[in-house]
Amino acid sequence: MSLMVEPRTGWTFRLLSRINSQGGHGHQRNRCLFSGPHGFSTPVKDCGVVLLLASGWGLMAQLPYLRRLIIGYNNYTTMTHRVHLVWQLDHIDDGASAKEFLDRALLEDTLDNVYIVAISIYYQKGHIDSSLRAPGNHRRVSFYEDRRPNWEEIIESELARKHNKVWTEKLLADGRSVPFEEHDCWTLVTVSTVTETRDQLRKQTWRFLNQRVRLRELAYQPPS
Description:
Layout: H1 11-21, E1 49-55, H2 59-74, E2 82-91, H3 99-108, E3 117-125, E4 141-145, H4 151-162, H5 165-172, H6 177-183, E5 187-192, H7 195-206, E6 213-217
Parallel strand pairs: 1-2, 1-5, 2-3, 3-4, 5-6
């Protein structure tokens, strides 16, 4: 079992110290008790487009929704036909520990060779090497070096895609497209970001209310 843990000042700090004392790659058996997840859960299955916006450790709050949407699409239990995960990092190396989780999601997103997931990673420093590249040639992961996301442009781009005639006709060929037409009016934006970004998104999504854009701040928000 793989886990990602954000080290703070208590048990997680002691856990990191133990790993470092073993050179970062030692193996030792320890008994642990995990509970949760805790906090509220945001309904996602009835939205045509879902934008998952994260910065730093905020990715961990978004991963359960990413996987839930993929499984729901594969099982015909969700109306979502587009999921875009946008992740902002200070250094690209900070994302290495999440590669396994993102790769797993991309591998699950293969129903009938139709992909619904796109991932955009913005980072200020570092260098992309082959170990960070996603598996396959699907081109679903985009890296943006020395750039910060333009949240307004990202939202506008997804709204434009939703109303694109070619994309709509493709959806109508899908067996689940009849109920999808009724629910496609909603675009959901879930947020687990630093305070400054959340403030920006509140102002920007307000402009799109007439286009039925809904903003939800998740229970976990990373420290600024």
